[in-house]
Amino acid sequence: MQERVKKIKVIEAINPFVVSVDNPTARKLRVCAYARVSTDEEDQLNSFENQIDAYQTLINNNEEWQFSGMYADKGITGTQMKKREQFMQMIKDAKNGKIDLILTKSISRFGRNTVEVLQTVRELRELGVDIYFEKENLNSSDTKLDFVLTIMSSIAQEESRSISSNIKWSVQKRF
User: Fold this and answer.
1) In whole angstroms, what is the distance from residue 88 CA to residue 90 CA?
2) For the purposes of burial, counting CB atoms within 10 Å of the CB of 155, is it exposed (0-12), middle (13-18) or buried (19 or more)?
3) What is the three-class DSSP state of 124?
4) What DSSP designation does 144 have?
5) What are 42-100's pLDDT values in tens digits?
6) Sign of the C-alpha dihedral, residues 129, 30, 45, 85?
7) How many whole angstroms separate alpha carbon 129 and alpha carbon 122?
8) Residue 140 in contact with residue 124, Cβ under 8 Å?
9) What DSSP line would sit under 42-87, residue for residue?
């Protein structure tokens, strides 16, 4: 009996953002940024405006990127995502295929609830949306970083709890 040799043809994936022979018209990466400050204090408002200006400039000056929006919540805690209108709009836009990459200053700006941060990062990763946390120099596309992300978001969550506790103590002492 003669055996038949099966031939397998490997079809390489085409990255829609990289110009190649198979993809001469790569599209630009749709990039947005998210900024947040938790109080309306003057120094935080300056930080807020600086974050917005810096990210808009960064995105608009990169020829490989297309600006897909600036999402910013002012004077809102990061402990509950559902209370941040701009954040929720950004997630909705990402789910609707309008965003490929989200830039944010740090994990604590993205959120201060460990469970919500991890769920959101994983959900966006499944949709092919990356998040770059500038301060920590982390990109959510690397699943090996979930452990680091868990630790960092837990620290951010505890920091928020500590600040809240200190404020409550201060108010009680003033009475």
Assistant:
1) 5
2) middle
3) helix
4) G
5) 666 677 888 899 999 999 999 999 999 999 988 776 667 888 999 999 999 999 999 99
6) negative
7) 9
8) yes
9) HHHHHHHHHHHHHHHHHHHT-TTEEEEEEEEEES--SS-GGG-HHH
Residue type, 18: V
In the DSSP assignment, the letter for residue 36 is E
Starting at the edge strand that comes first in sequence, how are the strands of the sheet with 138-139 ordered? 65-74, 29-37, 101-104, 130-133, 138-139
* Amino acid in position 43: D
The residue length of the chain stands at 175
Per DSSP (E only), the strands in the chain are: 29-37, 65-74, 101-104, 130-133, 138-139
**Cα–chain-centroid distance for residue 25?**
27
